[in-house]
């Protein structure tokens, strides 16, 4: 990981097409501006993690439901939708 010290109104350039500018530094946080092409996805890390977790939970719930349905079908019990 590259660690840099920047002050307000100073920038970091990534490649030829991404510029990150420190807009303000306050006691509650740092305000950052990102100038990048529209085809580049820019997301906060906590959003990426939350979406990934939600997708994983949805997949698990679907797999659990499918397994339960297969088991009920195999046992020939009511609730199979037949």
TrEMBL record:
One Pfam family here: CsrA
Repressor found in the keyword field: yes
Biological process annotations from GO: bacterial-type flagellum organization; mRNA catabolic process; negative regulation of translational initiation; regulation of bacterial-type flagellum assembly; regulation of carbohydrate metabolic process
Recorded GO CC terms: cytosol
Classification via SUPFAM superfamilies: CsrA-like
Predominant location category: cytoplasm
Gene3D superfamilies assigned to the protein according to its UniProt record, in alphabetical order: Translational regulator CsrA (2.60.40.4380)
Subcellular location: Cytoplasm
Protein name (database record): Translational regulator CsrA
Molecular function terms, GO-annotated: mRNA 5'-UTR binding
Keyword terms: Bacterial flagellum biogenesis, Cytoplasm, Repressor, RNA-binding, Translation regulation
Range of residues in the leader sequence: none
Family of this protein: Belongs to the CsrA/RsmA family.
Keyword flag Plastid: no
Biological role stated in the UniProt entry: A translational regulator that binds mRNA to regulate translation initiation and/or mRNA stability. Usually binds in the 5'-UTR at or near the Shine-Dalgarno sequence preventing ribosome-binding, thus repressing translation. Its main target seems to be the major flagellin gene, while its function is anatagonized by FliW.
Assembly: Homodimer; the beta-strands of each monomer intercalate to form a hydrophobic core, while the alpha-helices form wings that extend away from the core.
Organism name: Microbacterium foliorum
